[in-house]
Specification:
The structure holds three protein chains of three kinds. Chain B is an alpha/beta fold. Helix content of chain B is 37%, strand content 22%. In chain B, strands 6-7-8-3-9-10-12-11 form an eight-stranded mixed β-sheet, with helices on both faces. In chain B, a hairpin with a 2-residue loop joins strand 4 and strand 5.
Chain lengths: 311, 374, 315
């Protein structure tokens, strides 16, 4: 296990380094300087930027100082917002986005697993058919379409729920539904197919031959094994939810990081784009690392050997 | 139809009926002679009576008649081996006895399974659960997949016990340690905390056996228990079966296609073909005086030390498609002695001796006359 | 044994039936059902799957409309017609018009071209890179494989859409850059699948068996390797298309789509967002509907193919 954690940790660092370097290279590929005078109107900001990025120095010094600033979580100033640094934006926006993301993944996990399990137990039955139809529809409808539909129907037409901002639990319902439907569908499908496979395993037959109750067989023997694949996709799913927040926050006017990020894209506010990308990437890679460790803890076999690249 | 034929047919029916009644009587002189070498004395108690069991599966391609009327009895302390090629219905038979026919695809169409006088086929699932694992246990073919990879051996051993009997955690653990000792696993106390992947295949099969025996069942169904194991491990596991049977007087149904295994531990043998038992009898009878051409074929396709130099004879062809089973004898197409009658009518059961019966037209007087002619 | 078989009563057992069958009676071959070729069998099973076939038919129709729709439309995709702005669906404008008076019907089919083009190109490029990279990695094995797979593992951990956004910001939004950005990150999944398949199949006993029978290697590839490897790869391609279409819509929604007068579904949806509350529902409805339907069609087709092409499920 120790060796496994170390290996994963090294991979994580490598991935973050690659993203950081990629960001650096890409920013320098922009014709001229990304922080040209024409992009900012404010000479103080211009000066701040050049100082922060050491634009007068040779490239490798720039790179090293850039890496150093990332390690110390300092992403420099914004172009468009004078007197505001990327760090301040992150500190303001990220907690809200984090809340949205976590609530979404919890909702998706809970409902997806329940739906998938029921569907697998009623294989080819009505419930199964319904659940899988929902799942395919859920995967097919982009979240921004769902979000606007929800606003139009539930918020505007029927006035059931508030349509915008993030000020109370009631305000959170629509954005969470909009964001969680896709992941719920994916988890439900995965849980179902994984359950169907596990249910044919000999050890389930053996558990039945022991005369155990169906509830015990499903929870203790089947689900525990069937949820392994669900754990493995949590990482990638989190990435999807995170990029989903960009869209959802914009539609629901939620003052999270995603909103600032989209604004910065439209304004070509490069430091904010760079900072957010690196920060979010590091965050995601870290979550992937956590998921991997969790998987290792859940599956006793992983201590001895790890299945390689069985995509 | 002349009188002679009619009489003959009546006789046959009577024979069949008698046989169902007596169903290979026990304690006869023949049997005792045969069993002299072992200390076992067969009990009169019938643990299991299977009567005309028919099991079908609904599939996309249609209905598969997997088991087409199987009857046999099993006595206390006896080992009955059910042998046959894969797909002949032997595993389905054992699953049906155990109440493990996959729902809703599988249906028990007909017949009865009496366990100590109680009808199993009509029991509700919750009633069945009080028998599964307690009175009847099952061992599966592949020990690598029969154990849950995410639970410790201890948990898997004790959960059946804790479900069925009022025992404390500590008592269950103690019992689990005893069981592991019984099946020959060293350091049982430490091993309880380990996971299946930390054991070798042979060890895992021992654990599976321990799990099956922990509630002290009266009937053990072993579905190909040694097929997935190395030859040396196979021998050890078979010895373990014999040892356990001597200690506990448990009845065993052994499903296998390995005649070596059968020769070692079976008392009686039932040969299955295409969902039917085509020949059943005492081990010696089946091995030394097989009557059904299929049984003969099976024996000829296995190397034997006492027949060095004889060529092995594979049975040609493949078993029939059970989507549309033939109305006559299913072995006709592969049988070197096939007659026209075999294609038309399934043969009546003929009792060769009190401990030996066969379904084959060759036993018919008319066929015998034919053989003498040619 | 049997005691209540629907055996004919003994009277029916005629004496004359007791004669041996001719020597050649062993016709065990006749019970074997005719074996179909892998692709025919897969097609037969796919055809049985109504949902997947529905998806396939929808996609074919969509392609036809995407190709011919704009040609037969009397309206231009880009020319503005301000007097007729924001009209609701009517006989003249089936899907209504947008804020510049452009016909939404025409633009929807034009958007279909863009979206499908992006999706198909992304899937094809992924396929080529993936098959080369994964093929080499799986075929060579050993050190090469483990190094190549380390690289893939690291790339797999990258948050793809973030990288795509970064690339788009730098390269500027255009059709080419969308496809490039999507494939830069997208090939990794395909490479993993190809490599897994190649590894698995390399060791299959039946390959060894074919070799020992002296089969030509071209025959091994055609008869054994291809059918067994292509299944998951085709499925992966089918599923890449909708995810690329989704990514394009997503990027357009962030303001990184193709430039103004032209339309993709994502751009149209994005443009419609500010006016959705003023009641111009058709502006969002039609592009959103077609994105959803297309994704749905590809997803059910992918699922159907997965079932149809899995050799283990053959019956």
């Amino acid at each position: 296990m120790g060796k496994y954690i170390v290996k994963r940790f090294i991979m994580m660092i490598a991935t973050i380094l690659i993203i950081a370097s990629l960001t650096f290279v890409l920013m320098h590929l922009i014709p001229g300087s990304p922080f040209d005078g024409e992009r900012t109107t404010n000479p103080t900001i211009q000066a701040n930027l050049e100082k922060f990025y050491k634009l007068d120095q040779p490239l490798h010094i720039q790179y090293l100082s850039y890496l150093k600033s990332i390690v110390t979580f300092d992403f420099g100033p914004s172009i468009k917002k004078p007197n505001e640094s990327v760090n301040e934006l992150l500190a303001r926006g990220f907690p809200i986005s984090f809340e949205l993301g976590m609530a979404t993944i919890l909702v998706a996990l809970l409902s997806g697993i329940i739906l998938g399990t029921i569907a697998s137990l009623r294989h080819n039955g009505l419930v199964d058919y319904f659940a899988m139809t929902f799942a395919v529809v859920g995967i097919s409808v982009p979240n921004f379409v769902l979000a606007t539909l929800l606003i139009q129907q539930l918020a505007v037409k029927w006035d059931l729920l508030p349509a915008a901002t993030w000020s109370s639990p009631l305000h959170m319902i629509l954005p969470i539904i909009a964001l969680a439907t896709g992941p719920t569908a994916i988890i439900a499908r995965l849980t179902r197919s994984s359950m169907l496979e596990v249910l044919t395993q000999d050890y389930i037959k053996m558990a039945r031959a022991k005369g155990l109750s169906p509830a015990r067989i499903i929870v203790r023997h089947a689900l525990r094994n069937a949820l392994m694949p669900v754990v493995t996709i949590l990482g990638t799913m989190l990435a999807g939810i995170l990029t989903g927040t960009f869209v959802i926050e914009r539609i629901f006017a939620i003052p999270g990081m995603g909103k600032y990020f989209v604004e910065s894209i439209n304004n070509r506010d490069y430091p904010v784009i760079m900072g957010t990308t690196v920060f979010y990437s590091a965050f995601l890679v870290f979550m992937l690392f956590i998921v991997d460790i969790a998987y290792g803890l859940l599956d006793p076999r992983i201590k001895l050997h790890r299945k390689e690249g069985d995509a | 139809m002349n009188k002679h034929q009619l009489d003959h047919a009546k006789e046959q029916i009577k024979e069949r009926m008698d046989e169902v009644d007596k169903s290979l009587p026990v304690g006869t002189s023949v049997m005792q002679k045969n069993r002299k070498k072992t200390k076992k004395v067969r009990s009169d108690i019938k643990v299991l009576q299977v009567n005309n069991l028919q099991v079908s599966f609904r599939t996309y391609g249609g209905e598969v008649e997997a088991v087409r009327g199987v009857s046999f009895n099993l006595h206390q302390g006896e080992t009955l081996a059910i042998v046959g090629e894969s797909g002949c219905g032997k595993s389905v038979t054992s699953n049906a006895i155990m109440g493990l026919i996959p729902q809703p695809a599988g249906i028990i169409k007909n017949g009865s399974v009496l366990f100590k006088g109680k009808e199993l086929t009509s029991m509700s699932k919750s009633q069945l659960r009080k028998i599964q694992g307690v009175d009847i246990s099952m061992i599966f073919q592949d020990p690598m997949t029969a154990l849950n990879p995410t639970l410790t051996i201890g948990e898997q051993l004790t959960e059946g016990l804790r479900t069925h009997k009022r025992v404390s955690k500590q008592e269950a653990k103690q019992k689990a340690i005893e069981m592991l000792e019984l099946v020959g696993i060293p350091n049982p106390t430490e091993r309880l905390k380990q996971f299946p992947h930390q054991f070798s295949g042979g060890m895992r099969q021992r654990i599976v056996i321990a799990i099956a025996l922990i509630c002290e069942p009266e009937l053990l169904i072993a579905d190909e228990p040694t097929t997935a194991l190395d030859v040396t491990i196979q021998a050890q596991i078979l010895e373990l079966f014999e040892e356990i049977q001597q200690k506990t007087n448990i009845s065993i149904i052994l499903i296998t296609h390995d005649l070596g295994v059968v020769a070692k531990i079976a008392d009686r043998i039932a040969v299955m073909y295409a969902g039917k038992i085509v020949e059943i009898g005492d081990k010696r009878a089946i091995f030394y005086t097989p009557e059904h051409p299929y049984t003969k074929g099976l024996l000829n396709s296995v190397p034997r030390l006492d027949l060095v130099g004889e060529e092995l004879q594979p049975i040609e062809g493949t078993p029939p498609d059970l989507f549309s089973p033939p109305k006559g004898c299913p072995f006709t197409a592969r049988c070197p002695y096939a007659m026209e009658v075999c294609e038309h009518v399934y043969p009546f059961t003929k009792a060769i001796s009190e401990s030996h019966a066969v379904d084959c037209w060759l036993q018919d007087e008319r066929a015998k006359a034919l053989q003498e002619l040619s | 044994m049997t005691n209540s078989q629907e055996v004919a009563s003994p009277q029916h057992v005629k004496d004359e039936w007791f004669r041996p069958l001719p020597k050649g009676h062993v016709n065990a071959e006749s019970v074997v059902r005719p074996s179909l070729s892998y692709w025919k069998d897969a097609w037969r099973r796919l055809r049985k799957n109504k949902l997947a076939m529905g998806g396939l038919i929808f996609l074919v129709l969509l392609m036809l409309f995407a190709i011919f729709g704009p040609i037969f439309s009397p309206y231009s995709v880009i020319a503005t017609d301000y007097p007729n702005q924001n009209q609701s669906p009517s006989a003249a404008h089936w899907f209504g018009t947008d804020e510049a008076g452009r016909d939404v019907f025409t633009r929807t089919w034009y958007g279909a071209r863009i979206s499908i083009f992006v999706g198909v190109m992304a899937a094809l490029i992924d396929f080529f890179i993936g098959i080369i990279y994964g093929g080499i990695s799986g075929y060579k094995g050993g050190r090469t494989d483990s190094i190549m797979m380390r690289i893939v593992e690291v790339l797999y951990g990258l948050p793809h859409l973030l990288v795509v956004i970064l690339l788009m910001v730098i390269m500027g939004a255009s059709l080419t850059t969308i496809i490039v950005a999507l494939t830069v990150t997208g090939w990794v999944g395909m490479a993993r699948i190809v490599r897994g398949q190649v590894l698995q199949i390399k060791n299959y006993e039946f390959v060894t068996a074919s070799k020992s029978f002296g089969a030509k290697s071209s025959r091994i590839i055609r008869k054994n390797l291809l059918p067994n490897t292509m299944g998951p790869i085709i499925v992966q391609m089918t599923l890449t298309v909708p995810s690329a279409i989704f990514a394009e819509a997503f990027l357009s929604f962030l303001g990184l789509g193709i430039a103004a007068p032209f339309a993709s579904w994502g751009v149209m949806a994005n443009d419609a967002l500010p006016v959705i509350l003023s009641g111009h529902w058709w502006r969002l409805f039609f592009p959103a509907l077609f994105i959803s339907l297309t994704m749905f069609a590809f997803n059910v087709l992918g699922d159907g193919l997965q079932d149809a092409l899995d050799p283990k499920l053959r019956r």
